[in-house]
Amino acid sequence: MKIARFFLIFLIIGFAKAQNNGNQKMNDKSFEYAILGGGCFWCVEAVFERIDGVSEVISGYAGGHTKNPTYREVITGRTGHAEVCKIVFDPKEVTYDEILDVFWQAHDPTTLNRQGNDVGTQYRSAIYYIGDSQESSAKKAMEKANISKIEIISISKGENRNDGNEIIHTLNRESFVLRKSDPSLFYLQRLRDEAHRFAIGTHRQKRDKSIHFNPLDEIPGIGSKRKKELMNAFGSAKGVSKAKVRELTEVNGISKNLAHNIYNWFNELN
Length: 270
Known about the structure:
Elements (H helix, E strand, L loop, with lengths): L11 E4 L8 H4 L4 E7 L2 H8 L5 E9 L8 H4 L7 E8 L6 H11 L7 E2 L2 E2 L5 E5 L1 H14 L8 E4 L10 E4 L12 H19 L22 H11 L2 H5 L3 H5 L6 H12 L3
């Protein structure tokens, strides 16, 4: 019986069922993809875009309970999502193991719900693997990174693949079954289902510009030209979010009123 599993690494290692979700590169079997969370997805995206063999990096969310959440919803910490990136790569140029090597070097998986100054559950460390090969690589990568103290748990759907019959697997004890009423089982089921949803549907409805989500797109008065000016001035949407009103007004096309609107958009929830 073929079973589908996902892992929890400190915060999450999740299973993501391999699917053809409409991405042209994923139609080409010569490409593979990895789904990783290492704090702010803009930072993760910037790292992997510089890796030879990586053809595309797509930012998104996984692990939560709100359908199609917005950036502003996620940063409240109430949706349960983690910021993640889908990394499309050519295994002839860079292997999944090498992708994971970069992943460990690019962030600290031992800090709970934070990376540097970014604090919140959305910044947790996460790996969503696709298939047995990536599962094995994830385990070996943890050992190589000397993260042996982190608990690893996996879940399979069990016989007939019915909810409630899931089997829990760990490295150091025999597999076991939780009661159907156990809240821990419900939590693991939701994590598994969210991993599936992310892998199957997150990018199916998004193409071109919408694939690369940018919170600047949600601010009234910010079109493509002004967004480009802001990105050029501050390097990223995160940089824009930390800018002062005076700094924003120095950007071409940004009036004082619009600068206040941008500043308030990012800071009114703080």
